[in-house]
């Protein structure tokens, strides 16, 4: 099969939502006739996500192939995505969560944006027409603050650089040097070079169950990542101060 898009699905304790997601992706791929594969990267979920994923993969194999990558321990979202990309064959990469917070029907629109010339297509909560459901005020404030920090220190001119839902051309992805801190791979892509970017609005819905990945450690990793990217940008500019 000539795979055009690789959809990378990192998982940890998502046995309830992953089969639903794969089923919906199968319906969308069959309807749009996209050529896709999915790579499920599971960090030894104690709830048996990998086993459930294997059964769900068999249900959709007539529409698109699904590969299950089983890692021996929980090693983090960023490394899971990188492992998934290495296992995939697609010319473009789609990264999305497996907990149904990212609507699968947005995938064709992200791929269309790449086909129209973008290097990176961002599923954007903050572009006109996007939004967030079921977030408390403190979480919204934290997200807005992190976005402002990225835009101010790194000069990233994207409304939602913190998005975990995006598509990117493989050649651009593979040219990016990732720091491996936290889970904000999109921010690293946006801060590398001058990609052509298209934001595609969507409604983000917080997971109904399970635990969010956000914690004190991830906030610290984000601040460390911002610092490293800021230093890298300054070094590339010969030590000039970053644009506000």
In short:
Helices cover 40% and strands 18% of the residues. It is of the alpha/beta class and 244 residues long. It has a single domain (5-136, 160-211), classed as Spore Coat Polysaccharide Biosynthesis Protein SpsA, Chain A, CATH 3.90.550.
Briefly, what CATH class?
Answer: Alpha Beta
Task: Indicate how many domains the architecture comprises.
Answer: 1
Q: CATH homologous superfamily?
A: Spore Coat Polysaccharide Biosynthesis Protein SpsA, Chain A
Which percent range fits the helix content?
40-55%
Radius of gyration: 17 Å
Strand order of the largest sheet: 3-2-1-4-7-5-8
Low-confidence stretches: 240-244
Named CATH topology: Spore Coat Polysaccharide Biosynthesis Protein SpsA, Chain A
What structural class results from the helix and strand content?
alpha/beta
Question: What is the 3D form?
Answer: globular
Average pLDDT works out at 88
Distance, first to last CA: 47 Å
- Strands, total number: 9
Largest sheet: 7 strands, mixed
Write the layout of secondary structure elements.
Blueprint: E1 5-11, H1 18-32, E2 36-42, H2 49-60, E3 66-70, H3 77-87, E4 92-95, H4 107-115, E5 120-124, E6 131-133, H5 137-154, E7 166-169, H6 170-175, H7 185-190, E8 197-201, E9 203-205, H8 216-236
Parallel strand pairs: 1-2, 1-4, 2-3, 5-8, 6-9
Antiparallel strand pairs: 4-7, 5-7
């Amino acid at each position: 099969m000539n795979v055009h898009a690789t959809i990378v699905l990192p998982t940890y304790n998502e046995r309830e939502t992953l089969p639903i997601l794969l089923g919906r992706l199968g319906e969308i791929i069959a309807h749009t006739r996209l050529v896709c594969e999915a790579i499920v990267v599971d960090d030894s979920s104690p709830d048996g996500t990998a086993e459930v994923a294997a059964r769900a993969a068999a249900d959709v194999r007539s529409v698109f192939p699904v590969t299950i990558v089983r890692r021996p321990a929980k090693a983090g979202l960023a490394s899971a995505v990188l492992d998934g990309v290495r296992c995939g064959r697609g010319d473009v990469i789609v990264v999305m969560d497996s907990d149904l917070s990212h609507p699968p029907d947005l995938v064709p629109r992200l791929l269309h944006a790449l086909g129209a010339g973008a290097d990176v297509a961002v599923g954007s909560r903050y572009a006109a027409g996007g939004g967030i459901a079921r977030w408390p005020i403190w979480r919204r404030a934290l997200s807005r603050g992190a976005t402002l920090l990225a835009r101010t220190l790194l000069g990233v001119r994207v409304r939602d650089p913190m998005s975990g839902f995006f598509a990117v051309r493989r050649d651009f992805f593979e040219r990016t040097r990732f720091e491996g801190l936290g889970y904000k791979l999109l921010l690293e892509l946006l801060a590398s070079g001058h990609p052509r970017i298209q934001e595609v609005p969507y409604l983000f819905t917080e997971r109904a169950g399970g635990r969010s990945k956000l914690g004190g450690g991830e906030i610290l990793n984000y601040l460390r990542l911002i610092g490293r990217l800021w230093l890298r940008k300054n070094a590339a500019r010969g030590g000039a101060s970053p644009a506000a």
